[in-house]
Amino acid sequence: ALFPSRPARNPRMSAHPPTPSRTSLWQQYRRELGFLIFFVLILATSFTLISWNPVNDRVIEPFTGAIARAGGATLNLLGQETKMNGTIIRSDRFAVNIRNGCNGVEAMLIYFAAVLAFPASWKARLLGVGLGFVAIQLVNLIRVVALFLTGVYLPRLFDSSHTVVWQTLVILSGVLLWMLWASRFAGPAPRDPLAADKAQSA
Q1: DSSP states of 58-75 as a string?
Q2: What's the rounded Cα separation, in Å, for the pair 36 and 117?
Q3: What is the CA radius of gyration of the chain?
Q4: Is the dihedral of CA 25, 27, 29, 33 positive or negative?
């Protein structure tokens, strides 16, 4: 009897088509997730460190005093005739006390954490830290001077300027400075080796 012949199966042919390789969420977004994880860790560590009493007393308080003296000297150049008493800038018409939160340290720590967590060369990171320190403290000095002058000439606007306007401007300046640094000094992102392999095999 004759039976219909079946075509020979090609051993290279599989019963199911190959499924495309799937990349995990970490592989797909590892740069972004890595940046976020390191940013949170650095920020939490730095804020914990400055809240420790020995660091606050030996580092933060003297630094805040230096900020106050710089603000008083600038106001004297503007003819305000201020006198210093610790971190207090005083004149015959107004007085302001430079405390933690008014020294620009928090804004600097947020900026430093973003710079150090960003995947860039250490040379670019150190450059970003140095430029950021100078720029943020310059903005903060302007804040101290502007708030004192607001207290002298527009005292009704002092509270809103202190808690809303200048707090926002200092933090915003740090964010904008980081964006500028990341776009101009951090350099291009390294090539993804998985993406390169896929491009070569395509």
Answers
A1: IIIHHHHHHHHHHHHHHH
A2: 8
A3: 29
A4: positive
Closest among 34, 17, 180 to 119, alpha carbons compared: 34
Global pTM value: 0.77
- pLDDT per residue over 168-186, tens digit each? 999 999 999 999 999 887 6
Tokens linked to 138: 């310059």
CA pair distance 123, 130, nearest whole angstrom: 11
**Over the range 105-116, which residues count as b (16 or more CB within 10 Å of their CB) and which as e?**
bbbbbbbbbbbb
Question: Rounded to an integer, what distance in angstroms lies between the CA atom of residue 155 and that of residue 178?
Answer: 33
- Give the list of residues 6+ apart from residue 184 with CB closer than 8 angstroms, or none: none
Q: For 69-83, write each residue's pLDDT tens digit.
A: 999 999 999 999 999
Average pLDDT over residues 130-134: 95
